[in-house]
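User: Can you model how Broken Fe4S4 cluster sits in this protein?
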Amino acid sequence: MAEKKKPDAILTVCDATQVMLNAAREQGVETIFDRAAKMKPCPIGAEGICCKNCAMGPCRVTPPKGDEPAKTGLCGATAETIAARNFARMVAAGSAAHSDHARGVAEVFLAAAKGEIPGYGVKDVQKLLQLAMDFGLDSENMELSDIAVEVGKRCVAQFGQQEGELVFAKRAPLKRQELWRKLNLMPRGIDREVVELMHRTHMGVDQDYKNLTAQAARAALADGWGGSMISTELQDIMFGTPVPITGTINLGVLKEDEVNIIVHGHDPLMSEMVVVACQDPEMIKLAQSKGAKGLNLTGMCCTASEILVRHGIPVAGNFLQQELAIVTGVVDAMVIDVQCEMQALHRVSQCYHTQLITTSPKAKIYGAKHIEFNEHDPINTAKQIVREAIEAYPRRKSKAVIPDIRQDMVVGFSHETITYLLGGKFRASYRPLNDNIIGGRIRGIAGVVGCNNARVGHDEGNLQLIKELIKNDVLVLTTGCSAMACGKAGLLVPEAAAKYCGAGLAEVCETVGIPPVLHMGSCVDNSRILMAATAVVKEGGLGDDISDLPVAGAAPEWMSEKALAIGHYFVASGVYTIFGVTFPTSGSKIYQDYLFNELENEWGGKWDFALDPLEMARKMIEHIDKKRKALGIDKARDRVLFDMAMRRELDAV
Ligand code: SF4
Ligand code: MSK
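Assistant: Here's the modeled complex, given as C-alpha cells:
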C-alpha cells in the first residue's frame, strides 16, 4: 500500500506551483518534485514492518510466501508488534512536536504575564477567564495580571504532571471522558505519556499491539486535548482569538519591487513580532533607502496561518511550495522557526540571494544564518531579522519570476466564531448548526486537514476530496496545508457555496454568508475542531458523545508524524478517520485489521485508508449516513433531498 503515483501522474494542480516548477527546471534548480521522481520509498519501511529498535536489526518481517511460517525479528517480535511499535513511535514524535511547541508558548506566556517580556499582552480577556475556570481558579478578586500568571503556571505544569488527568481533557463530552477512564486512555501528563510510549516501544518491552495502541492514544490525547489545545488557547489569549478576516494566497503575493520576507514553520511567537517590526516606520524607511518600495511580509505553512487569521497577512503557499518560493528570485529572507522546513531550503537559497534564517535553538539548518529568537527582547530580534532581509534586497541576482496568481479568501473560523456566526450576537450557540444537521440540509461535518506529500499530486487529493464532500452537503472544517490548498482553489469564499455545494449546504452557507469550507487555523488548531465537535454534542439532539455525530476526519495528503498523532487523537476521541497516500502499518494484516475494524467497537472511532480521494469521500459519506441512521435522522435528509429534487424537476418542466 505504499505510494502508487504513476510516472506520468500530475505533480501539482496548483497553477502557480506549476509555473515555478517549470522555472526551477529551466534554471537547473532541483526541488522535492525531482527528488521524489528519482528516489522511491522503501516498500518494507513504508508498510511498517522493518524494525530497527536494536542493533541486532534492522529486521524486515515481510509477509510469508505460501506455506512459509510468519517471519519474526531476531527477538521474536511479530509483524503486528513491529507495525504497532513503528506506528506508536510516529505518534510519539508527532505529539512531542506539537507539545514542545506548546511548552514554548506556555513559557513565554508565563514570562509575559510576569511582565518580563515587552510586546506580548492579553488580547482575549474572555478566554483567559475561561481558562482560569477550567483550572478551577477562584479569580473573582484577582488582578488580571495575577490571573494570567496563575493560568500560565498551571499550563506549564500540565507538561510535567505525573498523576491525575489533563485539565482540558475534561472539556470532552462526559461519556467520552468515562470511556477514557474505563479504558485507561485518560492522559495524565503531556511529557509522561510521550516518554512512556517511547519506553514501551523500546526493544523487549511492550509486545502486545493492542496495549501499544492504547498508550499511543494516551500520548495522542495528551497532544490534542493537551499540548495542541494549550498552544491554541494561549496563542489566542496573547495574540487574539481569530474572527473572520480576508486574506490572499499563492506565490503571486510576492512583490518584485518590495523587500519580501517569508516566515515559515509553526510558531507564532517570533512571527507576531516580525509583523510588528515590518510596520515600523524606521524599518520601512530603511527598505526604501535600499531602493525598495516597502516591506512585504508573507507566510508559509502553519506560521502563515497563525498571522493570516489574526492580521490578514498574505500567504505565499503551502508545504510543497517552500523551495519554489525562493526560485521566484525575489525572496530576500526566508525566516523559519520549527517543523516542516526542508533542509533543501539551504541549497536552493544558495542559488539565489535569499538569506535563510533559522531562529529556534531547536531547529538549526547547517549553513543557514542563525538569529536566535530572544524571547526576552523579541522586538529587537524581529528588527534584526527584517534588517537582514533589507540588506539582502540589493543583492538580488536573478530575473524575477513571480506567477501572477493569487486568490482571495475568508479565514479565521475559530469554534467561538462559528457559535457567533450561526447563532447571532444575542443567541450565540450551535443550535442552528445542529438543527440544520438534524433537518438534513447539512448531511454531516468533515475535518479535512494535513499536509502535502510529494508522493501524490500537490493539492490534488485535498481538493478532490473536499469538492466531493461539499457537493454532498458535508460542511468541511480545515486546517494546515489542506486549508491552504482550499484557499488557492477558491473554496474559502462564500461564493464557493453556489458553485460547488449540494442544495442543502449551499442554502445554509448563503443564508449565513459563510464559505462551505471553514479555515480553522494551523496544525495545533485541530484542537479547535475537537472543541467544535464537543460543542455540537453539548448543544444536544445528536447523541451524547463525539462518536455519535455524523462526522468524519481525513488527511488525504498527509506526510508528517504530527498528522498521525492528530489522526490518532481524533480516532481516540471517537471519530472515523481516513488517510491517503500510504498507511504505515499495511504490512501487518493483523494490526491493520485491528486499527481499521476492531477499534471501533472499543473506542467508537477507527482508522481507514483510501488512495483515491473520491473513494475516500464515499467512505466518509457512508460513515456519516451510518451515524445519521443510528440517530434516527436519516429520514429527515431523505425528505429534504426529495423536496429539492422535486423542485428541480418542477423547474425543468
Ligand atoms: Fe529485530 Fe527485535 Fe531488534 Fe527489532 S527489537 S531490530 S525485531 S531484534
Ligand atoms: S505545515 S504538518 S505540512 S499541514 Fe503544519 Fe503543512 Fe503538515 Fe506541516
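A couple of observations from the model: The pocket of iron/sulfur cluster (ligand 1) is lined by residues 51-54, 56-59, 73-75, 77, 82, 203 (CB under 6 Å). The chain has three domains: 79-239, 251-395, 411-631.
User: Helpful, thanks.
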